[in-house]
Predict the 3D structure of the following.
Amino acid sequence: MTERELYPSINDLMCAKVISIRTGNCCLSAGWESYCDIFSFYENENMLNIKGIGSKTRLELSWIYEAGISLLSKHERNLFQSGEKIPSPHTQDHDETAEYLKSLLSNDFKRKAIHEKYEQLIQAYPIRSQIWLNKIPLDLFIAEYLCCHDRDDKPIKMRHVYVENLPETADLKDKLTAEIARQFYLSEEDSVRDAIFNHYGLSGSSDFPVSYYLKNHCFPMFWILEKQLDNYDDRDMEAFKQIFQVYQNQRTLLLAEFAARYSISRERVRQICNQLFSKIFCSRSLFFKYRSDWNHYRPLTGDTIWEKDVQKYIDEEQSSFSTKFVIHILFNLIYSDRYTLYGKFVSRFRVNNWKHTFLVNNRIASIFDFEKFRMEINDILLKNKTTCLLDIEKYIAKCNCWIKNRPDEKNSVTDIVRNILVNEFQLHTGADGNIEIAANIKKTLFDVMYEILKNNGNPMHLSEIFSEFKRIMPEHYYDSPIKLRHYLLKNSAIACQNRKSVYVLKEWTHVKSGTIRDSIVEFLSKKRLPQTALNITDYVLRYFPGTNILSVRTSMFNDTKQRFVFFKGGLFGLMCKKYPLKYKPTENTLPSFADRLLDMERFLVENRRFPFASSKNRDERILGVWWARVIKGIYKIDESRQNEVKRIRTQYAGCEENKRFFQWNKNCDSLKRFLLENRRLPSVVTEKFLYHWLKRAKNDFLKQRMNEQQLKKYLELAMLIEK
């Protein structure tokens, strides 16, 4: 313990109920001022010489002496026994001390600084002392403990005071007294600088925040926040400041641009931005730790708060923040319980429907859908081909954007709508109260998509349309073909062809829109009798030349809408049509999955290999195509069927190897026949397959990847080549 911690005053002991008032009065009558006097007099003087002391007082002083001695080290005990006494830090008159404390506490700024110092000092003590001191408010500690020096004053009756807490209490009193004295002699300018440094970590290199506080009695929080952000020069903060519109007149970067600059992935940049955005605007953010310093922005009231309303704060505080960023800060800190935010603060890689950011009172936002209103006005502007006038009051009265019909709020909603039209769409009200909507001569993306297909004259793939689109509009921010799909699917003049991202115009007669099944339905709907698969395929091939009869039959069998009916003799019709009674419907003629699997297992047992999809044998070819579709996931099957497929592949794993050897032997025999017939090696031009197969076989021989049977046949082939 320090020397000051060892010498609490007599008044301190009475306040803490360490000694009784009777004992305290006896000590004060004897001229004792501190704990040290009790120790010194108890060991060197006779207690009976003290006026008014009795047996209870002597016992109490004896207990105080013994309790103190047991807590002190040998060195500290010598300090008491030496009789040295440290002067009291309170040398001023009580009335004078109370007067300057009263003047300090009347200053809200210095009072706040003293209160923060008081809490900071308490946190430095052991937990046992913190528990007790936290129960004493600052005003009570100053009025009844710090200023209580006269003998006639009544000490406060403090609870939970033990002798172990006395050193910390005395230390707190001395340190708080020193802080009060420092604040008393500290100029207001220096007090402001100290507060800025203690709260926000900014040094007093600039006089602007000091002069701003002295003039407005509040801190320039946006100026301070900007300096705080500037102090963070790491990569993550740089990503936040360059991808979001944090500053005015700032060119934001795309994720790919920032990723290329720091050699990281685009996805990593997106994660950094999202994490830092949440970190800055969360309730525990270090940037907004002292939320009471933002309360002077609360006077912004009204049904709406626009960007122009906060521009004055940016100008006054010499900040370069964007108005969108400022409104987002104020909304999160102050206005989230009373206002709804429109036009959120987002990065460039996210689409924002609103051009501006503004707040609308919850009272209005709960009865009128402004998002829906924006979409309706935007559609009117896009589809308007001639100049017209819009009576906004009549439009608001009849529009379907009302969530709750409140005629008494019509004027408030109309005023907000007029502001939205001016700020978002640059539509001003005329002298007659109407809004003039000019004809839209600018081409929309719907028009551009239509013209691309019209000029081409033939079906186009999505990637081809995108290439032509970037040639026409290279400055447009769409950077991938998938973003154009919406404008193609929603365009009433455009239709898709098949399911391969190919698009056509509905007005074309030389090509067919829709899918293969749509063409089959169209063909069968024109026929009175059921048709064969060959007739149906001939019609479909006019518009889909890449298909075949097997694909057409499979498409009808697998139709999820069950639009087709099957008749004996391989005839097909529509479920919605009535056919003569001589045509008898039958079940789906395609074998079931279980039958196919049984055929596959029978083939494996008989041939010891898997079937070839290119076999000349029709049954083997069909079985090979079906198995390939199952393995590649084209033919969708449930979990139980997948388990059966795994069983076949595991149980007959050797057959897969036999299939490869069978094909290898077949290719080897083909090459051997070619050599015997032509007496030369195959050419890379005319016999391309045999040429490359021989090259692969030679490579397998050199790397010893052949079994004994293959090695024997390859050596025979090599001898034949040498001859």
